[in-house]
Amino acid sequence: MRFLFLLILPLFIFSQPIDRIVAVVGDEEILESEILQSMQMIVLQNKGVAPQTEEDYGSLYHTVLEDLIQTKVFAVRAQMDSLSITDEEIAQQSDFYIKDWIQTIGSESLLEQEFGMPLVQIKRQLEETLRQRLLTEKLQASFLRNVQVCRTEVETFFYEYEDSLPLKPSALHISYVLCENKTDADQNLIAFEKAKKVLSLAQSGENFENLAQQFSDHAETATNGGDLGWVERGDFPSSFENVAFALSPGEISPVVETSYGFHILKLTERKENRVRLKHIFLATSAFDFETEHSAVSIVDSIAIKINSGDLSFENIALDNALCFLSIHDLGTIPEDQIANPSFWVARRGSDFQAISRHFSDASKNLETGHCSKTFKVRDGAFFVYLHSKTPARKYNLTSDWATIETFALRYKQERLFGLWVNSIQKDVYIQRFD
Questions:
Q1: Phi and psi dihedrals of 121, rounded to 5?
Q2: Would you say 81 and 139 are in contact if contact means Cβ atoms under 8 Å apart?
Q3: Please, what is the Cα angle at 432 between 431 and 433, to 5 degrees?
Q4: Domains of the chain by range and CATH?
Q5: Residues 6+ apart with CB under 8 A from 233
Q6: Is 425 helix (H, G, I), strand (E, B) or coil?
Q7: How many CB atoms are located within 10 Å of the residue 3 CB?
Q8: What rounded mean pLDDT belongs to the chain?
Q9: pLDDT of 183 over the 80 cut
Q10: Hey, CA dihedral for 262, 211, 374, 359, is it positive or negative?
Q11: Eight-state DSSP code of residue 198
Q12: Which burial class, exposed, middle or buried, applies to 164 when counting CB atoms under 10 A from its CB (0-12, 13-18, 19+)?
């Protein structure tokens, strides 16, 4: 069974007509169903990983109860301090959690089955939980915003807890390269921009025949340097011929558009009413762009070139300026955060999840200087490139001052906040029931 007894028990209790008061904070009651629902939410946030023993279950139950008591104490204090949370703040987080849970469970109906209530009721109870949590965070931030640490405190903290600090996690410097799906209008623009870049290369002195072999989408002529042979009037559309017959021998035309795509022409000979041409042809969607140059095939071909050593990552933009890729350097990411959705949401927003959810799979066993397999997403396709990997190590004051300063500040904040919580709890009526 997917969630073992943890989810079976809450569903059973939710169906019972009688609920039990577990604690009272001020004039607020904490019901057992609240605890069970909170436990259920924790399981969903952990992607379905539930306590495996009765001891683990009891420990989680106790932890959730104490958290609820503290949250309600904070709610009383927040009301005294006139702190509030907007509906927009709650709705934003609620939508994120609901979407994440549905993805974990598989569908809205399965989520309703797990909670034993309709989605609208799940959302309503989640919003109340979030309101109290956000109030707690705002209250905590209000209390701690003026807490600081001096250099001596940081050094004292480090020397006292140096052996207890975790290792600095290994980190990956990664980028992802995305090729977006395009509409027909986009494809026409892509082909035109590609033609302009190729024309610029030709005008700067690059060998026309080599450019045709490298960039032309007309396979029959690309292999022989773009040679079209002798052309007479009536062989091609008028827009093509008007430019072709106006050229002088050796002259290169501007970009010419026809219903087939875009052309760059070079006149090599002229005889009476005939001209001999070489051309570079850039196809639009009319030439089955989607099949020949789909986002997946473009990304695949680039990754193969990089992994084989035929192309450096630094030259992607130059070599593939014609594919209209977007290259995104994500910087150095702690390896233990690669698969953390919250980490990416905080950095890039919730819409980034469609891409970031593949990062863990993409970076697994990835070698430095290589690309991952291609991942297809709604808007196109992408791969991940590993620039470098930094192994885990111990923290030191020279290289990691900012991080150690954060540790020291957090330690001081938690200590002061704990003392403050104890003081405000004395002013609030709290009663626990066995």
A1: -75, -40
A2: yes
A3: 120
A4: 4-145 (1.10.4030.10), 171-182+292-390 (3.10.50), 184-288 (3.10.50.40)
A5: 241, 245, 273
A6: helix
A7: 18
A8: 84
A9: no
A10: negative
A11: H
A12: exposed
What percent of the chain has a predicted confidence (pLDDT) above 90?
34
Cβ contact 276:231 at 8 Å: yes
Closest alpha carbon to 172 in 353, 403, 392, 16: 392
> Of 350, 357, 348, nearest to 93 (Cα)?
350
Q: What are the tens digits of pLDDT across the range 291-312?
A: 334 778 888 989 999 999 988 8
Judged against a pLDDT cut of 50, whether residue 4 lies above it is answered with no
Average pLDDT over residues 33-58: 80
Helix H or strand E segment including 91: helix 87-105
Residue 358: count of CB within 10 angstroms of its CB: 20
In sequence order, which residues have a C-beta less than 8 Å from that of residue 284 and are 6 or more positions away? 184, 187, 188, 191, 260, 261, 262
As beta bridge partners, residue 375 has 382
Extract the tokens encoding 381.
Answer: 């396709």
Q: How far apart are CA 46 and CA 97, in angstroms?
A: 12
Distance of CA 345 to the CA centre of its chain: 7
pLDDT at 390 over 80: yes
pLDDT band at 317 (very low <50, low <70, confident <90, very high): low
Which tokens sit at 257?
A: 């558009």
**Local confidence band at 418 (pLDDT 50, 70, 90 cut-offs):** confident
pLDDT at 33: 86
Q: Which carries the bigger pLDDT value, residue 79 or residue 150?
A: 150
322 has a pLDDT exceeding 70: no
**Residue 327 parent element (H or E):** strand 326-334
- The contacts found for 411-418 with CB under 8 angstroms, 24 or more apart, are 411/157, 411/161, 412/147, 412/149, 412/153, 413/144, 413/147, 416/144, 416/147, 417/140, 417/143, 417/144
Q: Which of residues 237 and 248 earns the better pLDDT score?
A: 248
pLDDT tens profile 125-153? 888 888 878 888 888 888 888 899 999 99
Q: Which of 412, 395, 415, 413 is nearest to 404 (CA)?
A: 395
Query: Quick check: 184 and 248 in contact, CB under 8 A?
Result: no
How many CA atoms within 13 Å lie on the side-chain side of 174?
26
- Taking the C-alpha atoms of residue 53 and residue 6, their distance in angstroms, rounded to an integer, is 10
The pTM of this model reads: 0.50
